[in-house]
Structure formats: C-alpha cells, structure tokens
Amino acid sequence: MQYIAPGATLGVMGGGQLGRMFAHAAQQMGYFTAVLDADADSPAGLIAHHHVRSGYLDEAGLAELARHSAAITTEFENVPAQALAALAKTRPVAPGAAAVAVCQDRAAEKAHFVSCGVPCAPHALIETAGHLAGIDVSLLPGILKTARLGYDGKGQVRVRTREELAAAWAELKQAPCVLEKMLPLAYEVSVIVARGHDGQVVHFPLQQNLHRDGILAVTQVPSPDLTPPVQQRAIEAAETIASALKYVGVLCVEFFVLADGSVVANEMAPRPHNSGHYSIDACDVSQFDLQVRAMTGTPLVAPRLHSPAVMLNLLGDLWFRHGDTEVAPPWDRILALPGTHLHLYGKASARPGRKMGHLTITGAMAQQARDTALAACDLLG
Ligand code: ADP
Ligand code: MG
C-alpha cells in the first residue's frame, strides 16, 4: 500500500469515543477526518471535519465517506462487515472485513484462537433446542453469551444448572449463543498489538484489568500481578492471532490468567480498546497514534511506557451519586491531584452504565499512581 501523508482525510466508521480519540490523534498529525455515524451528537462527529450522518449500510452515506477519505478504519466492532467490504472496493480499509467478521462472532473468534494454538475456555455453541439438550454438564457452572452483538457484559447470563441454562437461553430470545465454562480467574490482562500492511507487529505493555458488572472499571500498567512467563505467552498469542488474520490496524486480545499461571484467550476487539486509553498519557505513542500509522502505511514503532498509570473509567453512575439529579463530579478538585489526566467524551447527558469519559493517573512510581487513584476515587464519591 502507498503511504498516505498528512494533509489527506482519514475516515472512520462509527462516531463513539474511540472514533473521537482516533480523530484527535489523526488531527494532531495533520490529517483531516471524516466520521460516519447516524447520531447528530456522536462524540467523534462533534469534532471531525466531516460528519456523514447515515446508517452503516446506507449506500449514499458509504459513498460520501469514501469520497472524503483517502483510507478508512473502524471504531465500532459491530459495523456490518459487508459495509467494510463495500468501502474496500474503492479505498484501503483497515482492519479488513474478513478479520472484523471473525471478531464479531464469539464462535468464529474461539475457532480462530484454537486454530492458532491459543487456549480458550471450554465452550459449546447453542443454536438449536437439540444443542441445548446435548450440553455437557462439565460446562456448568458457566456463562451463556450471545454469539454476536454483546459488549460490556450485555447479552450474558451466568448459569449453574441445566434449568437455569434453559431459562437463560429463553431470556436471550434463543439467539445463537456460546456457553462457556466459568473459570477461576486469578486476574485479567489484555494485550494491544498494531500490525502494518507490511506485516510488522508491535505491542503495548500488558495491562491488568478489573471489571465491575461485566464493564471495565480499572486498568493498571504495569500489571501488578504479571509474571514474565505469563507476559511472554500472552504477547506471543496476541501476535499470532493478529498475523494469522493478516490483520492491519490495532487489535486488542483479552486474556484470563488462572491460578496455575495458564493464559486463556477470552475475546478480541478489532480496534483500539478501553484498556489501552492510558497509552495517550503514559506512552510515547498511543493506541490511536498506531491506528493512524497502520492505516496510512506509516512505519510502526514499538510504544514505550514512560509512566506507570492507573486508568479509571468514568461511568454515568458517578453523575447521580447524590440522587436523581445529574451532578458532574468535582473535576477542579480531582485535577488538583498531580498526574491526573481527564478525558470526557462530549456526551450531553449521563446515564447509569454509560461511558462518559476516563481519568488516567500517571506517576513516577506505580505506588504513587495507585495512591493518587485512591484519592481521586474518594473525590468521585
Ligand atoms: P464483553 O464482550 O461484555 O466484554 P466478556 O466475554 O469479555 O464480554 O466478559 C466480560 C467479563 O466477564 C470478563 O472480562 C470476565 O471478567 C467475566 N467472564 C467472562 N467469561 C468468563 C469465564 N468463562 N469465566 C470467568 N469469568 C468470565
Ligand atoms: Mg470483554
């Protein structure tokens, strides 16, 4: 692919916060940006040079995005793969439709992990009543997850017995699902890699992630529990997974680490990831910078963590800590703490569970970042 120099316009499918941070990185490097998102107030649409307000499958909208853009990426993993395939007829699209399609389906994703020799949780596909009846009880207790369109713990039910499993499948409207055995997690990490058109792969340091109610709450780098063998296994696995997909762009692979140190792939996202937001403030190149570099054929460079960091997700719940009236947290007091970096996504109203922004806390030492994060949590209420 030919290198696309600053001054060109880069397009992104989806206008959420990931698209907004992508646009910020692209603009910093001197690119113009175009966003396709139906929502007039989408976080990325608000700050892009061009906002195409259309659905992902709208032919006129896709043609307009292509007209503006020298190359196109995606920020939302559920952009229909056929929309990316249609765009790819006239413009370089990274990541490509085929790789995104694998990430959109938990069954295909797990099959890909297995084909790469990367362990994943014991699981079975449930698409019919026959599959449900034939489930091996060794998968219980387990988690039933819709094969498609799940995120932030949505589309998941924890089940202990066959009866609960049957009720959960009914609750999920008998959509195609994957039943996964519940694993005893010691901790969770993710690996973000970027891969270029030329096959070069670079990775971020591993981040350790804490989820609350299925939603990422806290990311710490360096990971406090990580051991060198776990780190090596996870990085090798993520790089193999990306290369086998001939992936171009930024890919995040989430891993479970079990008590015996074994590393199990959970899922992957074909885009920058919430667990990599710290890279904006704590690394010399961020995950969004690498997304821009990969799609434009700019050489990739290995990111260097220059400060230990803690990232706190800011969910809409924080705006309702005093009751039903929406009140923003005391940003002035929080920003008085050294090393705090506030990122708000420009969403007009807060709702419980809605990702409103994140706070990255950097420090000279990991303990210092942790202490400041605790002080920030006190102020967040
Ligand atoms: P989502 O797409 O919503 O992020 P995940 O499959 O990553 O869905 O699940 C969300 C979280 O639920 C995980 O990060 C982990 O904390 C927990 N979880 C998911 N699958 C399992 C499992 N098989 N065993 C134990 N915990 C799990
Ligand atoms: Mg997940």
UniProtKB/TrEMBL annotation:
InterPro entries documented for this protein: ATP-grasp (IPR011761), ATP-grasp_carboxylate-amine (IPR003135), ATP_grasp_subdomain_1 (IPR013815), PreATP-grasp_dom_sf (IPR016185), PurK (IPR005875), PurK_C (IPR040686), PurT/PurK_preATP-grasp (IPR054350), Rudment_hybrid_motif (IPR011054)
GO cellular component: cytosol
Domain ATP-grasp: 110-296
Entry annotated with the keyword Nucleotide-binding: yes
Domain of life: Bacteria
A Pfam family per the record: PurK_C
Binding residues annotated for ATP, in chain numbering: 106, 145, 150-156, 180-183, 188, 211, 266-267
EC number: 6.3.4.18
SUPFAM superfamilies, alphabetized: Glutathione synthetase ATP-binding domain-like, PreATP-grasp domain, Rudiment single hybrid motif
Catalytic function, reaction form: 5-amino-1-(5-phospho-beta-D-ribosyl)imidazole + hydrogencarbonate + ATP = 5-carboxyamino-1-(5-phospho-D-ribosyl)imidazole + ADP + phosphate + 2 H(+)
Keywords (A to Z) from UniProt: ATP-binding, Ligase, Nucleotide-binding, Purine biosynthesis
Pathway in which this enzyme or protein is active: Purine metabolism; IMP biosynthesis via de novo pathway; 5-amino-1-(5-phospho-D-ribosyl)imidazole-4-carboxylate from 5-amino-1-(5-phospho-D-ribosyl)imidazole (N5-CAIR route): step 1/2
GO BP annotations listed: 'de novo' IMP biosynthetic process
A GO MF term: ATP binding
Family to which the UniProt record says this protein belongs: Belongs to the PurK/PurT family.
Quaternary structure (record): Homodimer.
Function (record text): Catalyzes the ATP-dependent conversion of 5-aminoimidazole ribonucleotide (AIR) and HCO(3)(-) to N5-carboxyaminoimidazole ribonucleotide (N5-CAIR). Catalyzes the ATP-dependent conversion of 5-aminoimidazole ribonucleotide (AIR) and HCO(3)- to N5-carboxyaminoimidazole ribonucleotide (N5-CAIR).
Protein name, UniProt field: N5-carboxyaminoimidazole ribonucleotide synthase
Gene responsible for this protein: purK
